[in-house]
């Protein structure tokens, strides 16, 4: 999905699969903002068509990426191609004046994308969520791995807990997980903070351990949530995770355990 200056652009397909972009000249300004939501690879060619049309009109443009496609392909492991660098090179070729990336998976995205700025809305939501849940000094912010800790640990939260996990190098499955930093007070409320949830294996591991250590309520705050969450057990009744707070950057399917937070550009651009 592509939104130009708050107007969603309409795209269709011809019978042979070619993309048709409906005319949007009436919404073009001298300085424009494109909001880009990736759902499948065809969205990248749609982005190409829209940006080229803006160039033809002599208009400048900034890009807001709700979720950076291929951001998890930020290193070469077990034969996987480093595809993030190719997608970043494609976006760079479109020459946006500035690129805002919501919760990039790692610093690699920012290194590869020219004129890029990272947006970390979870850091804005976290204090409000803590207030809503009536956090006390006995409650804890939890980072499920070193990647999350690197993104958020220096954000001013004392007594934060950090997990360390071990994955099978061939399958990528988690084989072990332990609390590396911090402690859990019996009866504590915990908010696990990360950028993305897929099936939720990492958070199930962390939640189970937190429960065993005495935590009473466990919440998950992630900016991006894939539909694959419904394939796992994270949302089931006996899951250690009580509620998930997320945005509609990747889906908007309703569920009693899902709470969607509205993410707008006004506060950041």
Automatic annotation (TrEMBL):
Transmembrane segments: none annotated. It comes from the Bacteria. Gene3D superfamilies: 3.40.50.2020. SUPFAM superfamilies: PRTase-like. Coiled coil: none annotated. Pfam families: Pribosyl_synth. This is Ribose-phosphate diphosphokinase. The gene is prs.
């Amino acid at each position: 999905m592509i939104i130009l200056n708050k107007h969603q652009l309409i795209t269709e397909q011809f019978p042979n699969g070619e993309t048709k972009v409906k005319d949007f000249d009436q919404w073009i300004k001298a300085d424009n903002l494109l909001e880009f939501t990736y759902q499948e690879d065809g969205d990248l060619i749609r982005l190409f068509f829209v940006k080229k049309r803006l160039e033809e009109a002599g208009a400048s443009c900034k890009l807001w990426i709700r979720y950076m496609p291929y951001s998890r392909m930020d290193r070469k492991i077990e034969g996987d191609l480093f595809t993030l660098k190719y997608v970043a090179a494609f976006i760079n070729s479109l020459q946006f004046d500035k690129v805002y990336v919501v919760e990039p998976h790692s610093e690699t995205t920012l290194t590869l994308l020219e004129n890029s700025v990272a947006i970390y809305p979870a850091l804005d939501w976290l204090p409000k969520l803590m207030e809503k849940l009536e956090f006390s000094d006995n409650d804890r912010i939890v980072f499920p791995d070193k990647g999350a800790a690197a993104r958020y640990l220096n954000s001013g939260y004392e007594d934060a807990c950090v997990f360390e996990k071990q994955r099978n190098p061939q399958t990528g499955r988690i084989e072990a997980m332990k609390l590396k930093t911090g402690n859990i007070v019996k009866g504590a409320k915990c908010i696990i903070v990360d950028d993305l949830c897929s099936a939720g294996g990492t958070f199930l591991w962390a939640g189970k351990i937190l429960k065993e250590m005495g935590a009473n309520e466990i919440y998950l705050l992630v900016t991006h949530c894939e539909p694959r969450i419904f394939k796992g057990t994270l949302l089931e009744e006996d899951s250690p995770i009580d509620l998930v707070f997320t945005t509609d950057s990747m889906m908007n399917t309703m569920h009693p355990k899902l709470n969607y937070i509205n993410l707008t550009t006004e506060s950041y651009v």
